[in-house]
Amino acid sequence: MGMHEGVFATCGESDDCVSSQANDAKHKIAPIKANGDPEIVMVDLGNAIDSIFGGKVLLVQDNYLRAEFKSTVMRTMDDAEFFYDQHAGVIHVHAISRGDFFDFDGNRDRIEELRQTFEESQ
Fold first, then answer.
1. CB–CB of 103/97 below 8 Å?
2. Cross-referenced PANTHER family, in alphabetical order (predicted)?
C-alpha cells in the first residue's frame, strides 16, 4: 500500500488485487470518474465507502484516501487506496486482500459497487 510519486505499488502476482494503474488484464480496473473540488470529491468518496458493507475510511490526506473493507465472503480485511487526479478527472484505485485468502473477485466487485454509488452522488 502507499504511493510513490503518484503511482501505487504493483499488484505483483496477487490474485486478489485490482488497480487502475495496472497494465495487465488480470489486475486492471478502470478508474472512477470524478470532477470538482478535491475536498468535496474526497468527502463524497468517503461517504460512498462508508455506505458499503464493512467499509471504513482510515486516512484522508489531500487527494489520497485509504480505507479497509471487511470481506463478505471470508470475513477477512481488505485494503484499498484512492488518489484523485483532478486534472485527468479520475480517481485511481488500488485494492488488495490481506493475507493469502482468495476473495472470489471480491475486491473487483466492491470497487464496481463503489463506482456506482460514488457516481450516483456526483
1. yes
2. EXPRESSED PROTEIN (PTHR34801), SLL1620 PROTEIN (PTHR34801:SF6)
Side-chain-side CA neighbours of 24 within 13 Å: the count stands at 10
User: What is the rounded (10 degree) CA torsion for 30, 75, 13, 33?
Assistant: 10
Report the distance separating Cα 79 and Cα 20, nearest Å.
Answer: 15
- Quote the pTM value: 0.91
Tell me how many degrees the CA angle 16-9-119 measures, rounded to the nearest 5: 70
The domain locations on the chain are 14-121
Per-residue cell: 65: 484516501
Q: How far is 105 from 38, CA to CA, in rounded Å? A: 29
Contact 29, 20 (CB under 8 A): yes
Question: Domain 14-121 carries which CATH code?
Answer: 3.30.310.80
Distance CA 34, CA 38 (A): 9
Q: What is the pLDDT of residues 55-93, one digit of tens each?
A: 999 999 999 999 999 876 667 788 999 999 999 999 999
